[in-house]
Amino acid sequence: MSELNPISDGIEGRLGRSPDAVPRILILGGTGDAAELAAQLATRNDLEFISSFAGRVSHPKYPIGVVRVGGFGGIEGLISYLIMESISVVIDATHPFAVGISRNAEVACARLGLPLIALVRPAWQKQKNDLWHEVTTYVHAAEFVNKKKGRVLLSIGRQEVGSFAACNDAWFLIRAIEAPTGQLPQHHEILLQRGPFDLKEELQLLREYSIDHIVSKNSGGSGTYTKIEAARLLGLPVVMVERPTKHTVPAVETVDQVVTELAALLTRTVQDGKQRKDVR
């Protein structure tokens, strides 16, 4: 998380906010963590918040409260939005693989002098009896499973499926919320499903399709972890795409930690405002 400095008079002035106005929080979301955070903040009357996500699926699950959908138009667009909406604090609760928006948020907040709270849930850790082949890119994952010439559960979302388009020697069960629109591997079947999935469902799926390998990105969290548990129980190898580095600032790992850090930030901001009034 970025250093929690009270918002200065200069920033408040540029954002057009009265020192007595309640803080406005921007949640960069699209994840279960972001939805949980919105639900917690909705119970408070000492702040306002807006949840924002890219909207890459046609029927997303909306969190409670005010929501905006769509991109910002890069760093400059995000800066303009933060000023226009008088945002006081940004909380990045995006997916661990959503690198672009996270890096843009860091730059935008640094340029405006706004606090940034970064939430990055812990990565999955290899357990006893896990058969993981860890790779750094989707291309490396594709090369590995194609050489094995088996039946693959491809569970990475739809955006990166194109990395497997040249795989002609493996068969893929492509599971996604919506159908991929780009190039696909020659031998495949598309399964449109939205998680979370329970362990029994995952075991049945792997057996029904005679899956030999699973390709997964290391998203962390509990929502899709049951496929990893199922692979462990069945002795199936998992090609695990390692997560990229999202932030250069320290991050917290849970929604409760975000709430705690936000409370500390708002308390310090209020105290600083009172001190400025006393001086005047």
Automatic annotation (TrEMBL):
The keyword Oxidoreductase applies. Keywords: Cobalamin biosynthesis, Oxidoreductase. Its EC number is 1.3.1.106, 1.3.1.54. Pathway: Cofactor biosynthesis; adenosylcobalamin biosynthesis. GO terms for biological process: cobalamin biosynthetic process. InterPro entries: Precorrin-6x_reduct. It comes from the Bacteria. GO terms for molecular function: precorrin-6A reductase activity. Signal peptide: none annotated. This is Precorrin-6A/cobalt-precorrin-6A reductase. The lineage of its organism: Bacteria, Pseudomonadati, Acidobacteriota, Terriglobia, Terriglobales.
